[in-house]
Amino acid sequence: xxxxxxxxxxxxxxxxxxxxxxxxxxxxxxxxxxxxxxxxxxxxxxxxxxxxxxxxxxxxxxxxxxxxxxxxxxxxxxxxxxxxxxxxxxxxxxxxxxxxxxxxxxxxxxxxxxxxxxxxxxxxxxxxxxxxxxxxxxxxxxxxxxxxxxxxxxxxxx
Length: 158
Ligand code: HEC
Ligand code: HEC
Fold this sequence. Notes:
The protein is mostly helical.
């Protein structure tokens, strides 16, 4: 699937981001399989991130976590939705750091202008909404052309 390949590339700009969890002094990690959230995430922090996921996407825990005989296995990565959520965490963090760091913060990982709910609005499939149908997007701008001196001018300067 599209997201699977990107996950490895999505990289290191890690990023939480959504709640501004600070990477502070290392404590004994409580959770076994955190790859995006800081290893020292507390119970309270994890709980609020997970409930934010539920409400932003309009889903329950089992949308991303596998359940066997009614019992949850939260560290398991068996469900692809969980890895997509990791990819989305990285993506959201990068959007904030790249496009919303107007004050040149030294901690762009704590910026959370764009959140899961910004796109999802309680829907796990925002691409299904009418506004996201192909054809409703303006075409991308043409690539910048070198001037006579062979230099590429920034496009947003008049
Ligand atoms: C949209 C997907 C999604 C939903 C919904 C979701 N989770 Fe998660 N959960 C994740 C991801 C992704 C991670 C791993 C984060 C990472 O790698 O840093 C995770 C990690 C966890 C962990 C840590 C497991 C470990 O030891 O590594 C627990 C516990 C957990 N979730 C509980 C819950 C509960 C309880 C709910 C419902 C209230 C829930 N989650 C809803 C995506 C989700
Ligand atoms: C910039 C917009 C945007 C943001 C921000 C965003 N998403 Fe998404 N997300 C999408 C789009 C678009 C899809 C593809 C939906 C589809 O295929 O129908 C998607 C798909 C997903 C899926 C897969 C759903 C499925 O069933 O295939 C998960 C899980 C998900 N997002 C979780 C999250 C989480 C968690 C966050 C916040 C950390 C987040 N997203 C932030 C736009 C966004």
